[in-house]
Amino acid sequence: MNLASKAEYPSCGAEAVGGLAGCDEVFSRLIGREFADPVLFRAHRLTVDAYCLQHTEKYMISSKSAAAHLMGICWSLEVGESLHLPPELKRFVDGPHVFVRVAVPPQLRRGKINITHLNSLSEPREYLVASREWAQSVWLAWSSAWEQTRAWVREAQKANYHSHKATPLFGAGNAGTSGKG
Description:
Oligomer: single chain
Mean pLDDT: 86
Strand content: under 5%
C-alpha cells in the first residue's frame, strides 16, 4: 500500500472498501449479522472494540470512549469473553472518573488484521475464531496502553469489590502477556 494514497483507506488499512464510509458499511453489515445470529453475537464485544480501536478518529473522540474500548478488549481477551461491557467496568466508565488520554497508535498501524478478515466468512466457528484473531491483533498494536488499561480494570474491580463484595477476577498477578496479548 502506498502511504501517499492512504486517504483511500480507512485508518485500519482495509483495502478495496471505499475509505472510511465503505469500512463503516462493512462494519454495519457484520453487526447486523451478529444481531441476527446468536452464535455470531458471541463475537460482538470483540468486533465493536476492535473496530473502534482501529477507527479512533470517529469512535474514540473522548478519553472515556478510549478507556471503555480498551478495557472491553482487555477484559474479553485476558479475563473472559463478554457479550457486553462487564457491569463493574461499565459502572467505572460511567462514574465520575477522569481518564488520562493514552497514546493512539498511528493510522495503518492499529493491528495487522482488519474488518475484511471477517467479511467473507459464513461459517460461525470460523467467524468467532477470526474475530478473536482480529481483536488480538488490535490489542497487540495498543501495547503501549496495556499498563494503563490493566490499571483501570483493576481499579474498576476494586471499586466493585468494595461496593458489592464481589471477588476480583483480574488481579495484579495477571499482567503477563503470554498467549494473551
